[in-house]
Write a structure and sequence with these properties.
It comes from Flavihumibacter solisilvae. By secondary structure, the protein is α+β, with helices and mostly antiparallel strands. Helix content is 49%, strand content 16%. A five-stranded antiparallel sheet has the order 2-9-4-7-10. A three-stranded antiparallel sheet has the order 6-5-8, with no helix packed on it. The chain is globular and about 60 Å long.
Length: 299
Amino acid sequence: MKVSTIIPLHKMEQSDLPFRLQTIRQLMEVQDENTEDPHYHNYYEMIWVINGKGTLYVDLVEHPVSDNMIVFLKPDQAHKLQAEKGMRGYILSFTDAFFNMGEYEFDWNCQATLSQFFFEHHAISIPKEMETDLEEIFLKMEKEIENEFPFRIQMLKRYFRIFLIYLTRQLENSTRQMSYGREAELVKQFLETVDRYYKEKKLVSDYAGKLLITPNHLNRIVKKNTTYSAGHHIRQRVVLEAKRMARYSTSSMKEIAYSLGFQDTAHFSRFFKEVSGMNFSDFKKAYPVIQTDETLKRA
């Protein structure tokens, strides 16, 4: 059964450096129809709004953005940034491959920090007094990216690590910190694996097997670090995709159910209601299809 997919996937261009830095102004200058509509990335992205206002739509939720706010976007999150004229800031994009390049490797603390930002937080606010220090780091990273200096990868990783340390300080006194070490890496691997296989695999034991641990151990670690069970994350990921397809495509419930691995529409309908708290048909009525260029063409 063919399912209409209308949310474009933007991939990071193949290069010797899977790490990109651009200003929000540069993005707006080259923004085309695809980036104006909701889209996915296959890479991580941090959007730092130094000053200005706008709205970021992430996975069907509207988030206002304003001065000195940093927003975190994971791969495969449907999103759209509407920035008011004059917004100033930076967009930092990278893939996991960046951290495995060169001799200087990221330690467990850095990986735990990244996991916490991207999997537990949508955005954080930055104090005005920190702005100058952070922008100086960004300008140094920009200089390294633009030039073929020796040890470029090593320098970029060190600057990025310093940047993460600044951000971590903002969390220490206000939020629970994810445990460092093996647990943080395990949670990250689990959530990434769910993103990859949620259409085919919906049992905790499926993911425990891939991670070479027992289901009970996986549940304990995931719940300890995220407050939710592993099963909860799997179910929420399936329903999130169903909601995306319902709002960003003209696919029927039968087509959506099939694409998500449900052979029986009634089973999907029960699953959706149990997890989301509402019937699929009621969701469609409450949240009609978002009109994009592609949906208008199909109409």
